[in-house]
Amino acid sequence: MLTALLIGNFIIGTSVVAPAGILNELSDGLDVTIREASYLIAFGSAVLCIGSPLMSWLTGRLDRRLAMAGAMLIIAVCHIVSAFVSTFVALFAMRMVMLLAAAFFTPQAASIAGIAAAPEKRAGAIAFVFIGWSFAIALGVPIATALASRFGWPAAYLAIGFAAAVSFLLLATALPSHFKTPPVDLQAWASLFRSRDILLLLLITAIVACAQYMILTFIAPLLVLLGNSDADGISIAIGLFGITGIIGSVTAARIVGPVGPFTTSLIFAGAIAIGMCIWSAGAQIYAAMLTGVLIWGIGFSAINSLQQARLVLAAPALSAGAVALNTSVLYIGQAIGSLIGGVLFDRGHYLSIGYLATAVMVASLGVLLMTRPHNADVSAGV
Prior knowledge:
By secondary structure, this protein is an all-alpha fold. The protein has one domain: Growth Hormone, Chain: A (Up-down Bundle), CATH 1.20.1250.20. It has 18 helices and no strands. Helix 4 runs antiparallel to helix 16 (319-346) and helix 6 (88-116) runs antiparallel to helix 7. The radius of gyration is 19 Å and the shape is globular.
């Protein structure tokens, strides 16, 4: 079951991030500017932000196998249909529909993993299913980038669509029938918003996402403009980013039990900050930018899975709502970061994007330190 959820997250991660790797092809193929093409990510993040808690609430009483497999089927159909549209408006509309289904999947995967695992293994189980996001960056996005550069952006969309169809079949057969997670009602949402610890964790998620997506949304054109890279260089950078992400996620899943979620989070958030600092300081030198990407990637997926795990441990009875809310603020951060990066990119301030993103990431470490657990929390695993 956990493997099927991991593969599902691989599809979700590829679907969400792939436009960042093919912005140049989307811009050329649909006759729009780079900034306009980036709206697929920025406005998509807004849909994910609203859709995550909304869809979790609307589907709270549904059988998880039906809901998860159904969401993946929608994702498959939307990508296949998108490959045959000829205007940016039509592609944009299909992506917004697809992202409503994607918004539901990732938080529910974390909730299902947390409920299915023994209490002492919850953090590791949640970190495991999020390795799918690392595989998306290591394999999914580079493959989509390579396909788009050689055969056009529709080829990338078709590939994602057919992969999602395979994931649909896996989910339909691997998840147990009549499996449900605790429904989230209005009282549960109110309880979450009254918790200082949960609000701080959500703030960390938003800040970290904002910092990363200032750069990630425009990583392909920035590598071209600053690092004089070509399409293969972009694929290599994104692929290595994902590979180190896999290493980081696997390492986080292994050490989070003995080391503790807080300390593990601090380690991997620090890796992101260091990597982004090297990217910014070494801009205009491809090798230096690649080095920064390698270090940054170690923390990219790991920090999100660790945030999910800390929320589940902080409020086990409200895990579905907490994880959905975390996913929502994650996409708020992505949207804000994409929009800020878009403004700077449109005005030609390419170097400033990295410096500002690094400063925001360092600020997130300060907030993270505010969540240092007390003795009672340490014994509970938070």
